[in-house]
Design a protein that fits this description.
- This protein has about 170 residues and is α+β, with helices and mostly antiparallel strands.
- It contains five helices and six strands; from the N terminus they run H-H-E-E-E-E-E-H-E-H-H.
- It starts with a helix and ends with a helix.
Amino acid sequence: MYEEFLSKVSILQTLDEWERLTVADSLEPIQFEDGEIVVKQGDPGDDFFIIVEGNGIVYQKTSELPQAVEVDTLGPGNYFGEIALLCNRPRVATVIAKGTLKCVKMDRARFERVLGPIQDILKRNIPRYNSVIRLDQLRAAAAASSNNQANNNNNNNNHNTNSNDEESFH
């Protein structure tokens, strides 16, 4: 059912046709509605997802940025959830549906059995994902800091103007 779609998913393009058929047979369709949390940062990761239709917004928080920051938007053909499965660690980001989001998912056992041929490729990409997410977070933090500084300066200027106005009335 998903064979043609899977041939367009970047990480699966290196698979032979029969390997993609095996992957397709292992997938389970799932749908999320607008605003619904697909995966949550810190939760155990037991599923790998590929987006078929719609968009998911990726949010992440770190010790430097305790408030979740939007770091990416995923669309059809994008995948997520592999880091938690490959590294056997909690989810590194939260993904929330933006509008209706249709995905296919694969649980841990199927992922390990079926995606064996590409696990090394996925593992090699992990540092790139982490650096992209980190760079986006730093940019967002810098922008937020600049905006806060500008707002503080405006508030101080307004306060100083008001103080001067009050002094002129006395």
